[in-house]
Amino acid sequence: MESLKFEAIYMYIDISRSRHVFSTLHDGTKILTYIADSINTAYQDQLLTPFTIKDGDAIVGGVSDFQLLPDIYSHCLTLYYSPHFKAHFSAIPAVVDETLNFYFGVGIGYIDTPATEDLQNINIVNGTSIINAIEASERAKQIMKSQQGQRPSAIDSDEDYFFDKQPFKFYCIAEPKSFGNAVNAMFFLAFEKLIKSDKQRDLFRMKDSYPDYSNIKIGTALGYGALSKADISSRISVLIANSDYFLYKKIRLDIVAYLADLQKMMGGASHG
Fold this sequence. Notes:
With 272 residues, the protein is α+β, with helices and mostly antiparallel strands. It is 55% helix and 17% strand.
């Protein structure tokens, strides 16, 4: 039977410590379904396989365009902190107090599926991209566990990248392994290392999600609404000036360029 082989990125997202966080596992399923629906709506014309519940406690989906990876990751962060998300799950304490964490496993590889099959069905799609995504999620879990209960100094000596500030714990596995390691390093720099405070984390996310927002709008969203407009604008200007925002923006562009070149190279290899 003729089969399709092409490069793809799949993402496997599951909830950290779900059995300890929720009174019923159904809560976790509802949250994952909500996230899946949001991604599917935002990227409906670009998804290879829509995000779907897999193995009961995770969602998985994929894209053929590598450059979408940082956008989808940012989309998840924006959704997590949105008033709509908190309002929808107001009965779940971990959502309200922002202690809910996820493993965001990314697999870069190939899809090898019979040409007659529907890629929309995650249960039919096969390939290294999905296998790598599941393994990446497990690796993110191992990294998180290895850091809990250790001294802060142990973080520096760990061989992998520990995401502390972001609720989605990112890890990527690719073939060859060095390509995934480079993605991990760039994501770690952009979404963890360059962020010095929660306010900076929120600022970067707001400017990514709402590029047309004025400083006043951003400041109001960040909780400075009680101040005068001049003071709000000044606070945001100072926050930007004291941050590495423009370096962060450069790394975001570098990630996209790297992923585009990686896809071209892998595409050539699969057809060669």
